[in-house]
Amino acid sequence: xxxxxxxFGVGLFVIAGILCLGYLSIKLGRMEIFGGRGxxxxxxxxxxxxxxxxxxxxxxxxxxxxxxxxxxxxxxAKITLLLQPEVKIQEDAIASIKTKGLVGExxxxxxxxxxxxxxxxxxxxxxxxxxxxxxxxxxxxxFEKI
Amino acid sequence: MILIRLxxxxxxxxxxxxxxxxGEPQEQLQQTTDKVLAILSDPNLKSPEKTxxxxxxxxxxxxxxFDWEEMARRCLxxxxxxxxxxxxxxxxxxxxxxxxQVYMDKVEGYSWNKIQYEGETIDGNYGTVKVKIFTxxxxxxxxxxxxxxxxxxxxxxxxxxxxxxxVNNYRTQFNEIIVKSSYRELVKRxxxxxxxx
Lengths: 146, 197
What we know:
Strand order of the largest sheet of chain A: 7-1-4-3-2-6-5-8
Helix content of chain A: 25-40%
Number of strands of chain A: 8
Largest sheet of chain A: 8 strands, mixed
Number of strands of chain B: 5
Low-confidence stretches of chain A: none
Mean pLDDT of chain B: 83
Largest interface: A-B, 24 and 25 residues
Oligomer: heterodimer
Largest sheet of chain B: 5 strands, antiparallel
Structural class of chain A: alpha/beta
Strand content of chain A: 25-35%
Number of helices of chain B: 7
Radius of gyration of chain B: 18 Å
Radius of gyration of chain A: 22 Å
Mean pLDDT of chain A: 86
Strand order of the largest sheet of chain B: 1-2-3-4-5
Strand content of chain B: 15-25%
Low-confidence stretches of chain B: 9-22
Number of helices of chain A: 2
Distance between the termini of chain A: 89 Å
Shape of chain A: elongated
């Protein structure tokens, strides 16, 4: 009887351990199993500049969402963003892909607009700005000099 | 030569009074660009003392294609709603002067001999036109115009050069100034910038 109790205890402990591990990997991996809180909008970019699923979306430097998925549509990148429900994005807002520092990770910045209309869930941010290709820019300046 | 100039003038007048344009964004943009090119290549307007006249002609052509109010509204973004009609009018005027000052030199500087239209996209009332402009050294510059359909005409409300949007750039700058100090300060700065030669 006593032995059974102990084995039962160990079993419980192991299960608890596995659950914790699962929770941690989901949290750290920024995975969403139940869809996550918030609503989705999408934007079409001519170039993603290496943005990844799970990259942050910021507004005035504050994180307001994440990149949910990236797919190819008509030879352009369609990026779906998952935004917090309380954050409303105006119809004339601009989404641009930026880099933290010179070589840091990529993120999406939203510059709020002044329109009275807001983008509904599933809607699209029309105005987008692809990342500035530094290499390209440098080569342009160099060649222009010659 | 006089004939060419007369023809341009007639074209200008005609374009202002009648809705001559009915095509799609690229076609309409091309018409405007061609008109500007005609003015720039007009030998009668090339001399330095004609600069003012030439610039006025160019401005008039550009005016038809650009929606200054929409541009100014988008640049001020959240702060636009708080402005009085009077302030809005003043701002649109200043904004126009600013763009004129910043871009007129560029328009006049480039030889513009080669412009490549790279297609348009239309989505409801919104359209984009991609253009490649070549510098005198054959270096391509990618420009993308964003247009909004108002009635039969497509009007430019934003353009990006090498992917950097004009509205986004000014929106960030204006917002910073207004948040840090005030709208008055922004107007003051714009005024000094515009009054500089």
